[in-house]
């Protein structure tokens, strides 16, 4: 990690990444083949959504095993009110590299099923779980949030900053509700809008998102919960906190860009991540919101 951040040669990493991409059928050049169309592997522009270099940049920004803002202390504080214990089953629908899944198991003893929409993140996350000897307690696997089925029910279902890319949220949340045990809890942290009227003003953000966003409005979210007879206990605006997390991380990255010599691949990855999160922060100041919803299913 130090060698990468200081800008030393990454030829070995590039060779490994190329081999991984070829094995997965994800190749940047040439026409797409059926094998490289695995759900979540490519972004909307036909490029690999995640690479080994981007993963390292994300972990530098947010912490080991994490790909979204907040750090382990904050993300753990999000799930603490759920009262998770070692008798409960938990589904994490935004597992990423599995950092929070493993933290939840270590902290509360619950067995966590981690699902991740991107196959590379899921593969890396499972490797991290194996290295921690938690492949059974906190497994990470790939799924398509637009087309999946559950074969069991859970006490807690959790999702952080991922479901805003799903177009048919009605179908998605019916599946989530069916997978939630009576008396179970759902915790959703996701991007929403105050109303659909603000979306035209967010084009500079939505047009650069690697996966096309479909944020619903706050009222649409509440109406969906009501239709499923879920009791919404918390609907909290976390936008200001999110902007603060992003600003802090971007400041750190900017300082490194100014004071360190990075090779072209790493500099490109850092620049792309800065642009993405900069656009998200800008959108959060123009009508996009990050909300935390905590809902209970009647027993």
UniProtKB/TrEMBL annotation:
**What name appears for this protein in its UniProt entry?**
Methyltransferase domain-containing protein
Q: In which pathway does it act?
A: Phospholipid metabolism; Lipid metabolism
Give start-end of the signal peptide. Answer: none
What Pfam families does UniProt report for this protein, alphabetically?
Answer: Methyltransf_23 (PF13489)
Q: Which SUPFAM superfamilies match?
A: S-adenosyl-L-methionine-dependent methyltransferases (SSF53335)
For this protein, what is any one GO molecular function term? methyltransferase activity
Which BP terms from GO are recorded?
methylation
UniProt xrefs under InterPro entries: SAM-dependent_MTases_sf
What is the organism of origin for this protein?
Roseiterribacter gracilis
> Which keywords label this protein?
Methyltransferase, Transferase
